[in-house]
Amino acid sequence: MPVTTEPSPRPALDRGRLSAAPGLRIEVLDEAPSTNLAVADLARSGEDSWAVVVTEHQTAGRGRLDRTWHTPARSALTFSVLVRLGVPDAEWPWLPLVAGRAVARTLNDAGFAAGMKWPNDVLIDELKVAGILVERVETPTGPVGVVGIGVNVSTTWAELPVPTATSLELKGATPDRTDLLLALLGALRADVEQWHTDGVEGLRSAYVDACVTLGQEVRVDLPAGAPLTGVACGIDSGGRLLVRTRVGDQAVGAGDVLHVRTR
Ligand code: BTN
Questions:
Q1: What is the SS3 string spanning 207-223?
Q2: What distance in angstroms lies between residue 165's CA and the mean position of ligand 1's atoms?
Q3: Structure pTM?
């Protein structure tokens, strides 16, 4: 495993290629507090699906469960995508899972052994390489999804915010960020289009296949109350994690999962 101490060169995103990407409207910002906030503003002002904001340096990145997301300039991909979902309301909880699995699939295609920790942390060797924050934003023309994705690309050990994180470079390769961004957007778009035409079932089983949490002994820190411990045994039709506990199966809709021991 390579140990990087000094950052490798960090080329800028190729704005020309991104602005020419078919079917996408990609805005590149040198610096932004949070791309999710920028895309939420675009959504409220009437923008349609596949508007994308990516920044070279996100200065106040937001994570799940009110956490922050910190990435040094040009070390990561930090971007958000506007998605107007044409699916029944009951299927909306699948958006974070579908987005996570699109990221894992893209990284797999690029040669990384990526899997999903429920709901949408992307792991390589049990270390987090990418995180996703999906927010539902009300607009005058109906609710939209803002899919925010952060991928650690060339982050060094010293720059990682926590020891349970990693970067693609630390896992052996440093993909070009422009190529990777276009691949991630292509995968997300293909999966959302599949969802619109075929329904969620195929994506559900693809998520289950990619989810490395299933079968593991877990502790789930819930938004309120005592943590739950047991064995992750399934994903229900609403995208919730099923945990087999001593008092029966419990469905978890939100929480932070720790893989206690691989079975
Ligand atoms: C998490 O794992 O807690 C989710 C992290 C999500 C970070 C991304 S970076 C781009 C987008 N903008 C934000 O402010 N957050 C998301």
A1: HHHHECCCCCEEEEECC
A2: 14
A3: 0.95
